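User: Please fill in residues for this 478-position structure.
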């Protein structure tokens, strides 16, 4: 058990340190700004566009109120949540697979926790950390509900599965898979009571979404469903090619190849060689079904991204730990140390390369330098056009319609745009030319800047890293 504790503690330390240094993705700014607006009393959908389910934003808003409005607190909490999710997945093996003992648990921690997607996306303010922890918790509770035959466990499983979907729809398939498995392996007389408990728990978790829906069905349906179904690929002619590239990205990822091979070997061992009772085997099959269901579900997102598959990692890692044992046994390897060490080193080296390759990319500390410049040249209360990160860091309220910058690319009927708080880029450009913003900050490229003649519209300009700040409006282009 010492090896497992060491690996778990080391994982938590690495994730927390990374969260306070390099952890940053561009879309995180939108999520943190939404949480900040909620902390200030605004409501998602009703007061600003928010193309996500709301629970993670409310969770982040809670921590902003408790720990202060800064990104470090949110990312530290997310790093610890991701650690908890991985450890909870590893602990699943503690009573079910004792052949290698702590080495098997440590393998899960390394395979899932040292995966580059876990480190990069499980340490930021988006819903990956919350979704991971909630899905793994729902999985553990579902297994316990069937094993111990307690109704309350089924309701708790539904609560956590519903909360996962309420944090990010990328986890939405976990609920149906868990419910179907619970019904399949429950006694006939227990099926519908457990199903009703599961569904009741899920409904409770979604009360915030239902409450907002009751106040404005049009806005909630647009942001949560219509935006993703019909508008997400707006102004992206290469979205289909992008999706195909994402589907094939595993070919260039040694971590993904190792995980896939070991998980397949694990399923083969459980099915053909383990000799386990059906009760134990079906729990490992559930890991396979969850991995498949979640993978297929996120593959339907257009455009999709490789980080969406992060939610499959805990379950694939469980199977991979068994697969490593199975392959080692076939090769005559009796000691757990060397196979565990070898796989761990390969995974960790892949992570180190990925982190090294990202060393010069944008970070929160670089964005803080941009925010300081914006604060320096922008009077208090003056209108500002900026990226979401800058609104968050400067604690300035964005003009209505500027809360979600990516929404500017949408071309909606005027009446609908006003209802859902979306301002098209053409109108934003008109506002820029008319001097509606005392300061304009952007991290877009030179072509974007030239198309809007920003150097002619504003007298002053400062380059801060990869971003630009314009101020002192000329009164129109010369």
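Assistant: Residues filled in for all 478 positions:
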């Amino acid at each position: 058990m010492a090896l497992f504790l060491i690996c778990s503690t080391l994982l938590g330390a690495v994730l927390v340190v990374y969260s306070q240094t390099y952890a940053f993705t561009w879309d995180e700014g939108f999520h943190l700004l939404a949480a900040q607006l909620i902390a200030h009393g605004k409501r998602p959908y009703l007061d600003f566009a928010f193309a996500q389910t709301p629970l993670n934003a409310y969770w982040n808003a809670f921590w902003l109120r408790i720990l202060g409005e800064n990104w470090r607190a949110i990312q530290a909490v997310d790093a610890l949540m991701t650690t908890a999710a991985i450890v909870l997945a590893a602990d699943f093996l503690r009573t079910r697979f004792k052949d290698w003992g702590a080495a098997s648990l440590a393998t899960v921690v390394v395979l899932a926790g040292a995966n580059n997607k876990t480190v990069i996306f499980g340490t930021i303010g988006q819903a990956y950390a919350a979704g991971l922890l909630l899905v793994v918790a729902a999985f553990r509770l579902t297994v316990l509900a069937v094993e111990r035959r307690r109704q309350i466990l089924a309701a708790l499983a539904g609560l956590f599965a519903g909360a996962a979907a309420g944090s990010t729809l990328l986890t939405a398939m976990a609920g149906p898979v868990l419910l179907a498995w619970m019904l399949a392996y429950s006694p006939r007389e227990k099926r519908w009571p457990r199903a009703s408990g599961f569904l009741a728990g899920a409904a409770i978790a979604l009360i915030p979404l239902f409450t907002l829906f009751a106040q404005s069905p049009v806005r909630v349906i647009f942001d949560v469903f219509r935006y993703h179904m019909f508008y997400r690929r707006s102004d992206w002619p290469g979205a289909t090619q992008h999706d195909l590239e994402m589907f094939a990205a595993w070919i260039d990822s040694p971590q993904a190849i190792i995980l896939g091979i070991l998980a397949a070997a694990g399923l083969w061992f459980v099915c053909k060689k383990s000799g386990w009772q059906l009760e134990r085997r079906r729990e490992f099959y559930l890991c396979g079904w969850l991995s498949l269901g979640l993978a297929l579900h996120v593959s339907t997102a257009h455009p999709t991204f490789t980080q969406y598959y992060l939610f499959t990692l805990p379950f694939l890692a469980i199977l991979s730990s068994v697969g490593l044992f199975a392959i080692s046994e076939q090769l005559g390897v009796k000691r757990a140390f060397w196979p565990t060490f070898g796989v761990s080193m390969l995974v960790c080296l892949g992570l180190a390369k990925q982190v090294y390759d990202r060393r010069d990319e944008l970070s929160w500390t670089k964005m803080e330098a941009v925010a300081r410049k914006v604060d320096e040249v922008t009077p208090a209360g003056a209108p500002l056009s900026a990226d979401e990160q800058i609104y968050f860091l400067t604690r300035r309220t964005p003009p209505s319609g500027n809360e979600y910058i990516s929404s500017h690319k949408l071309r909606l009927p005027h009446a609908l745009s006003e209802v859902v708080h979306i301002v098209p880029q053409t109108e934003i450009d008109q506002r820029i030319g008319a001097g509606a913003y005392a300061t304009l900050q952007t991290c877009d490229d030179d072509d974007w800047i030239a198309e809007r003649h920003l150097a002619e519209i504003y007298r002053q300009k400062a380059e801060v890293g990869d971003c630009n700040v314009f101020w002192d409006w000329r009164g129109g282009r010369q």
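For context: The CA atoms of residues 391 and 397 lie 7 Å apart.
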